[in-house]
Amino acid sequence: MTVIASIPVASLRSKLAGSAPLAARTAAPTNERWSVAAVEGLYELPFMDLLFRAQQVHREHFDANTVQLSTLLSIKTGGCAEDCGYCPQSAHHDTGMPASKLMPISEVLAAAQAAKDQGASRFCMGAAWRSPKQRDMDAVTDMVRGVRALGLETCMTLGMLEPQQATALKDAGLDYYNHNLDSDPSHYGTIISTRTYQDRLDTLNNVRDAGINVCCGGIVGLGETRAQRAGLLAQLANLDPYPESVPINNLVAVPGTPMEGTAPIDPFEFVRTIAAARITMPTTMVRLSAGREQMDEALQALCFAAGANSIFYGDRLLTTSNPQVEKDRGLFARLGLKAGC
Ligand code: SAM
Ligand code: DTB
Ligand code: SF4
Q: Which of 23, 66, 203, 231 could be cross-linked to 340 through a Cys-Cys bond (beta carbons 3.0 to 4.6 Å apart)?
């Protein structure tokens, strides 16, 4: 009980009184400052109490039976100059992944149309770049325009962005930019050495200043402690405003990366992370992201019960596999979930 009392969340009653209607939930979320200790306090709650609280917050802002579907496409694969320890696309690791050139726009639009036909509402294009080169900007902005013209929301993740690159993407109509903090600042340096935490925060500021919705989350299972998981969530929740979309990735330990053989985290700890993300960022879309292929359906259902309301949908993530579309359809039917925004 003392743990619950220490959590700096306004009472649910007062939150309900001031909560925005569902239709207004894309407005920039307002912030409540979260200490790492307070987020750790959430993790330490009895599992059922934590899930109950997460569900209350979730239902206050969303239809708890609706899950948003985003489909990923790797538009430029492999050969990346960065050394992110988890990533199969880094040129620093020997994963046997060949580097490819930027995909032609015709192939991107065909994949986007297929994603739409399967029921996705957002199409996310990822490139294995440290940052886009100026010469690539025309091609990627054309992709944004083309995908939008198909009636899909657009998201890109291209690495670090300068202010003028963010503005060019905004002018092309980009809805979301994904750029993750990945881990707690104290753990980050053990995973990535080629760009700093501050570099990531600078890109997030540039995206925010350009008026693009921010998609920013991280990975669990990188050998971090619970306090560091709480630290990552506190970093995200204290962004002002916090991201509109928060992907929570469970490490896919790819052979050939330094993370190969890393023991998976306790599945309930993963669910706790989803619940703590939901409570600390009530109006964000919490995306159950990488690692779903390695989870059974009961665990995924627990993640939805803990407040996850978005998934990557389609047989592939960027380079690794994701549950088959038919399998996800079956899961949604069994759980009475519907696809929506
Ligand atoms: N190159 C861009 C960048 O890093 O900003 C965009 C693509 S990168 C693959 C996007 C995110 O995918 C990473 O920040 C990381 O959170 C996640 N990711 C990459 N490899 C992963 C893995 N093996 N397991 C889980 N998440 C992973
Ligand atoms: C995010 O946070 N997860 C997605 C998306 N943003 C770009 C990527 C997951 C990649 C998993 C490893 C792979 O498939 O290469
Ligand atoms: Fe490159 Fe992104 Fe992979 Fe890091 S996560 S190695 S920046 S593709």
A: 66
* Mean pLDDT (whole number) for 162-179: 98
Cα end-to-end distance, the chain, whole Å = 36
CA distances from 72 to 140, 222, 276, 314, 317 (A): 15, 22, 25, 7, 6
Q: Which one-letter amino acid corresponds to residue 77?
A: T
Q: How confident is the model at residue 328 (pLDDT cuts 50, 70, 90)?
A: very high
Instruction: Count the neighbouring beta carbons within 10 Å of the beta carbon of residue 160.
Output: 18
Residue 112, both tokens: 């986007």
Which residue matches tokens 């998201």?
155
Tell me if 159 CB under 6 Å of ligand 2: no
Active site residue 303: no
Task: Please answer whether residues 29 and 283 qualify as being in contact, where contact means their C-beta atoms are separated by less than 8 angstroms.
Answer: yes
State the residue for tokens 């500021």.
Answer: 205
Residue 6: Cβ within 10 Å count? 13
Structure tokens that stand for 232 in this block: 């990552």
Q: Model confidence over 26-44: pLDDT tens digits?
A: 455 667 799 999 999 999 9
- Are the C-beta atoms of residues 307 and 36 closer than 8 Å to each other? no
Q: What is the pTM (predicted TM-score) of this model?
A: 0.92
| Ligand 2 centroid – CA 318 distance (Å) | 6
Residues 321 and 151: their CA atoms lie apart, in Å, by 26
Active site residue 87: yes
Q: Which atom of ligand 1 is nearest the CA belonging to 217?
A: 16
pLDDT of residue 31: 75
- DSSP code per residue over 306-331: TT--EEE-SSBSSSSB---HHHHHHH
Does the annotation count 148 as an active-site position?
no
